[in-house]
Design brief:
Membrane topology: Multi-pass membrane protein
Keywords: Membrane, Transmembrane, Transmembrane helix
Order of helices and strands: HHHHHHHHHHHH
Strand content: under 5%
CATH class: Mainly Alpha
Mean pLDDT: 79
CATH topology: Amino acid/polyamine transporter I
InterPro entries: AA-permease/SLC12A_dom
Number of strands: 0
Subcellular location: Membrane
Structural class: mainly alpha
Number of domains: 1
Shape: globular
Low-confidence stretches: 5-9, 31-35
Number of helices: 12
CATH architecture: Up-down Bundle
Domain Amino acid permease/ SLC12A: 47-273
Length: 278
């Protein structure tokens, strides 16, 4: 009878560690036949509009008021610090998206660089980030819509549903638009929405310039430098749209060229709007 080998087999923890640190090579992350089912219709302009549309919203309309309370006129410096820090993140995203032009964004980049376990943790954080961000935008939009309708029509809007119901209906509407496809859904509807939001921001800037009172700018730091630094993290919420651009990598006509252009342009446009709207 043959004797069993006295060499111990791989332990459970060793195998688990090997799986956790398993990396995905850049070559296998390149575009392959399995991804060609997606329609490649997006250009650099479309990607820029996606990034702007993901940032111009609650990031500018809501965060500005929240950040201004503890900082005062120095809120502009909070946005400046947030914009500078976001520039470095955007450059990293642009480099990685050009190297690995596959949908998956930071999850895929972490999978290639650090391994599967780190990618899983980052992916879970990204899911929470996207869900929270979408909930904040939908809730704020529904609240503004409800208040606007009640101010315009008064008692006629007694039939108007609650803010939660309006939010749910808006989510269903956006889901239906995305289900139509890239050409007829995402490109056209997103373009109209972005130009509408940009027009509102420009209107606020133009009207706000006529209401400026220099006396309100003194003192610049009424509560010190500490709140300015802490609120810069909150203000960075106004510049996170460039991360959404990378998720459209497999629907981009020329991802190696258009993804870095869309990421950098969307960040610069949002930074300019945020600074001017303050």
């Amino acid at each position: 009878m043959s004797q069993r080998s006295s060499e111990p087999g791989p332990s459970y923890w060793r195998v688990s560690l090997a799986l956790a640190l398993r990396k995905r090579s850049v070559e296998t992350s390149e575009l392959g036949p399995r991804t060609e089912a997606l329609q490649r219709r997006l250009t650099a302009l479309d990607l820029t509009l996606i990034g702007v549309g993901a940032s111009v919203g609650a990031g500018i309309f809501v965060i500005t008021g929240i950040a201004a309370k503890p900082t005062g006129p120095a809120v502009c410096f909070s946005f400046l610090l947030a914009g500078i820090s976001s520039i470095f993140s955007a450059l990293c995203y642009a480099e990685l998206s050009a190297r690995i032009p596959v949908s998956g964004s930071v999850y895929l980049y972490a999978f290639v660089a650090f391994g599967e376990f780190i990618a899983l943790l980052i992916g879970l954080n990204v899911l929470v980030d996207y869900h929270v961000g979408a909930a904040v935008n939908i809730a704020s939009c529904a609240l503004y819509l409800e208040k606007t309708l009640r101010l315009m029509f008064g008692d006629v809007c007694v039939w108007l549903p609650s803010t939660q119901v309006i939010s749910l209906l808006m989510v269903l509407l956006l889901t239906c638009i995305l289900s139509v496809g890239v050409e007829n859904g995402l490109k056209r509807v997103n373009g109209l929405l972005v130009f509408g939001k940009v027009g509102i921001v420009l209107l606020v800037i133009v009207v706000g310039c006529t209401k400026v009172q220099p006396t309100n700018l003194s003192p610049v730091f009424p509560f010190g430098v500490g709140p300015v630094l802490s609120m810069s993290a909150t203000c960075s919420f106004s510049f996170i749209g460039f991360g959404t651009v990378t998720n459209a990598a497999e629907e981009c006509i020329n991802p190696h060229r258009d993804l870095p252009i869309g990421i950098t342009l969307s960040l610069l446009i949002c930074a300019l709007f945020a600074w001017a709207s303050i």
